[in-house]
Each structure stands twice: as structure tokens, then as C-alpha cells.
């Protein structure tokens, strides 16, 4: 669960994070970098390869509904 003061995409505001999440390539790269920054190397690599499109759709849904990116894998 995300902390109340924590924001995704490097602490950027909600509106800017949603705009960045709408753009597929930006969402894939920033999602992976965010997971690497959290120390979740496997999750970052998975975001970069193979599951990019699926994670992009999930990130859009989660960003609009819960104001954070999707975190399925915590490894």
C-alpha cells in the first residue's frame, strides 16, 4: 500500500503522473525506473520486456482509480 505522502513517477504531482501514464513509451520507461528506484529489480525488468502493453493498461487504470501505478510483483 502506498504511503499518503508518496507519489509515483519520482514524486511528481497526480496530474503530471496521469499525463505521463497516458503516453505508452513514457509509462513503460518511468514505470520500470520507478520499480528500480524502489529496489524491485525483477519487477523493473519485467516492465521493460514482454509485459509493457499489459502493464501500461493496468497503470492507467490504477493511476486513475488509486493514484498509484500497478504493483503486482514485489521482487
How does this model look, in words?
The protein has 75 residues and is mainly alpha-helical. The chain is built from five helices and no strands. Helix 2 (14-22) runs antiparallel to helix 5. It is globular and about 30 Å long. The two termini are 15 Å apart. The model is unreliable at 1-5 (pLDDT under 50).
Q: Total strand count, please?
A: 0
The level of helicity is 55-70%
β-strand percent reads under 5%
Overall geometry comes to: globular
- Runs in which pLDDT lies below 50 for 5 or more consecutive residues are 1-5
Helix-strand topology string = HHHHH
Which class of secondary structure composition applies to the elements? mainly alpha
Average pLDDT: 78
- Radius of gyration in whole Å, from Cα? 11 Å
Reported for the largest beta sheet, the result is: none
Cα separation of the termini: 15 Å
Number of helices: 5
Layout of secondary structure:
Layout: H1 8-11, H2 14-22, H3 24-37, H4 41-48, H5 52-66
Helix pairs in contact: 2-5, 3-4, 3-5
Features:
0% strand; mainly alpha; 75 residues
Summarize the structure.
With 75 residues, this protein is mostly helical. 67% of the residues lie in helices and 0% in strands. It is globular and about 30 Å long.
Amino acid at each position: 500500500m502506498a504511503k499518503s505522502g508518496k507519489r509515483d513517477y519520482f514524486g511528481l504531482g497526480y496530474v503530471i503522473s496521469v499525463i505521463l501514464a497516458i503516453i505508452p513509451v513514457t509509462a513503460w520507461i518511468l514505470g520500470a525506473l520507478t520499480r528500480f528506484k524502489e529496489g524491485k529489480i525483477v519487477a523493473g525488468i519485467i516492465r521493460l520486456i514482454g509485459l509493457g502493453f499489459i502493464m501500461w493498461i493496468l497503470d492507467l487504470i490504477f493511476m486513475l482509480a488509486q493514484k498509484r501505478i500497478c504493483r503486482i510483483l514485489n521482487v
